[in-house]
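Section handout 9: paired folding examples.
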Amino acid sequence: MADPYKTLGVARTAAEADIKKAYRKLAKELHPDRNRDNPKAAERFSQVTNAYDLLSDKDKRARFDRGEIDGDGNPAAPFGFGGGGPAGGRPGYGPGPGARPQGFDFGGDGADMSDIFEGLFGGGGGGAPRGGFQGGFGRRQPLPKGADVQYRLQVSFTDAATLAPQRVTLGDGKAIEVKLPAGVQSGTQMRLSGKGDPGPGGGGDAIVTIEIQPHRFFERDGDDIRLNLPISLAEAVLGGKVKAPTVDNPVMLTIPAGTSSGRVLRLKGKGFPRKGGERGDQLVTLMVELPADDAALRGFVEGWPGRDKGNPRAAMGV
């Protein structure tokens, strides 16, 4: 049975932080993923893990230092018997030969066994002993996992709207492909199980926070996408078909004749995917652009009989 202090290479007086630091260093060097062709490294990793499991538990460490348990966490001398015979000479187990171990009652109707187990395992009041054992002998506590690691992933507007696969480069240099969830927004977090720091009980998780980048002409409105689409005066007056961009591919959009700036047309299913499986819409606001310094257009409007008819701002009370 190995001495856990020697296994981790620390002094018996080492602080908790020093023990943890020594373990992390050895665990990274000896982890099976990095030593697939070295069985001795895997065996050493197991020894290092067991040593850290004992020394990171204050109760186990104290009991080991007192000689009550060995380097494997097992009782060093059950019922106080050690060395060459009953109550014989093992540190921490009472006086030498001939003396009765504390907690035994050899008179009356029999021995009070509860005091024995309380002194041996550090328990109290008949409860379950601490330090990772059930009833003193049995299964151990789960080993701790490694720490979680935080990542930030910048995603383009169109990739987020189409749920395009993304690649994340982890701390060990490996790149993995991840699938964006429906309803993704800036601040959405994705948990990648086991992709964090290594630990005795397995790797921690990688926590990936999404940041959606702004687009130069698309704008998000909930699950919908808004777009201001410029059209010419001729297209507005006469109507016709124009090409309009979407996050998927451009589509042909029909402009009704006599369209004014500000009119909104709806493209169904061209927005962001919803959690229920459907997609939002794309809302296209038509913006009529007039040519600058067009003498013919100016002359037409000046001679147009209907230019002073009606008030387009009447509904606003002005």
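Moving on to protein 2 of 2.
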Amino acid sequence: MVKKSSGISKLAIVAIVVVVVVVVAALAVWLTTTPPPAPVEKKIRVAVIYTTPIEEPWNTVMHEAMVWAKENLDIEYVYTEKVEPADVERVAREYIVAGYDIIVPHSWGFWETTVKLAKEFPNVHFAQGSGPTDIEYPPNVVLYDYWIQDAAYLAGIIAGKMTKTDVVGVVTAYAVPDVNRLVNAFAKGARSVNPDVKISAIFIESWFDPIKGKEAAKALIDQGADFIYAERYGPFEAAKEALKEGKKVYCFGNIVDQSKLAEDVVLASVVWDLKTFVQHLIKMKREGTWQGGIYNWGMKEGWAKLVWNPTLKNEVPQDVLQLVDEVQQKIISGELVVYEPRDEIWDPARWT
């Protein structure tokens, strides 16, 4: 009787070995020729804290830049508005605990809290909107401000050249350094082309009070002002009322292009464009190259712009348009530097 084999035949074993060798070889080839999958890039999360309503121009320009970054730079953006300085620490801590990468406290009144939290959370990055420039900030803090005095200077040139009364005015918030820079730059621009012009500024002691702003503008118009730099809301309404009474009063918008708010009186706007700055913040965070310190960008970096109202630009004499273009090029090239340290202080005697 023939005994049957209960094991695997030698031929089967050889076949299995051949298959294993082929599979291993193919796997080795695949591993050496197929690149590893690209790592998923972490989405940068940004939280902005505003002290006044989002409609206030200082806030609007940051909000617009962040919305732009959300759409173009693939970031997450959230914000809280109407936050009092006494409450900003609570709000900021909530964002930090939630894992946000960049915290933007967008108000002068927040800077002390920002410094405190930056020291406590060195791995979180902060962009502080306005604050003193004579102190040392933690390395994870960027200090920025609306250094748009270059554009305010150009607005002053327009006012100084076109005024018929030799009286121009400013309606503004508080006599703090960042505001004073704008008021003084506007005054310098006007005086550079008209040594007889007088500049009158009214500080309404509020960041957002359109009623006070309107009343201040009416007072300036009563004093003979026919150009008003509306650093705050309110003057446009006063100028429109004056226009109905037969008085032509031109206004300059501030921070954002405000031409459409009052196309019949806003001649141009002193604009703060934060898109390049926000892009820089995101790039630093994403690449791990964060560099803190004071950022005083200007017209050269696309930060400050003078934007004409197309509806009224044809009312500007050609020689004024040409002069503004020439001075702008001097500012961009560095031939003309508008800012000087004494511009941080408001001294009305300097301009009356």
